[in-house]
Amino acid sequence: MALMASNLTSEVGLRLLLCPLGSNVVLRTACCSVGIAVPVYSTFKAIENKDNDEQQKWLLYWAAYGSFSLVEVFSDKLVSWVPMYYHLKFAFLVWLQLPTCNINPFFDQGAKQLYMNHLRPFFLRHQARIDQVLGRAYGEMVKLFCAHKAEFQYFRTIFLKIIGSADHFLKGGPEPHRPQQNATEDVQSETTTVSAIESDHED
């Protein structure tokens, strides 16, 4: 009986997934599960087991998947109208994760093929230019952070207080009691921070 129920569930799942008129919600969930959830767990296992071969396999996968996602961001509105697009995407994500087999070279480690044949040559040709752009962008980010360090610290303090309050609320415990002196010091500290921020903006 359990075997029949399992077979029935599998058949229904395949019909929902492979039906040309299947719901996009089902297909997107399947793509998310196969493309992200399974690889994340597999990467975790490879790291914990210190398996170098598996680590390299999933590094290649994430390089291929990241490149695909980058392209998809700019073309999703266009290609999503292609008939059976999410079916093709699901098949592509499965192909990226295929293990080595001796049946047909095309089915051997799709992520490795994509990396070796396309990504690696591209990055080797443009490596110097990419490093220059990334270095410049990183420098601008550091300058931005240094210029607005007080604001970042202020919002960080507020964020941590919100997280702390939410944590106590979810645990059902009472609000942590703080001495009046410490509370007064915190208020004075926040007032000083706000004054510093306003002074920076005036400058």
Structure description:
- It is a multi-pass membrane protein.
- Residues 179-196 have a biased composition (Polar residues).
- Residues 173-203 are annotated as: Disordered.
- InterPro entries: TB2_DP1_HVA22.
- The protein has helices at 2-18, 24-48, 52-79, 85-96, 110-147, 149-171, 180-202.
- It is an all-alpha fold and 203 residues long.
- The chain is extended and about 60 Å long.
- The N and C termini lie far apart (77 Å).
The best one-word shape is extended
Bin the strand percentage: under 5%
Query: Biggest β-sheet: count, sense, barrel?
Result: none
Rounded to an integer in angstroms, the radius of gyration calculated over CA atoms is 26 Å
Quaternary structure annotation: single chain
Helical residue percent band: over 70%
Q: Number of folding domains? A: 2
Task: Give the overall average pLDDT.
Answer: 77
Q: Tally the helices: what do you get?
A: 7
- Measured distance between first and last alpha carbons: 77 Å
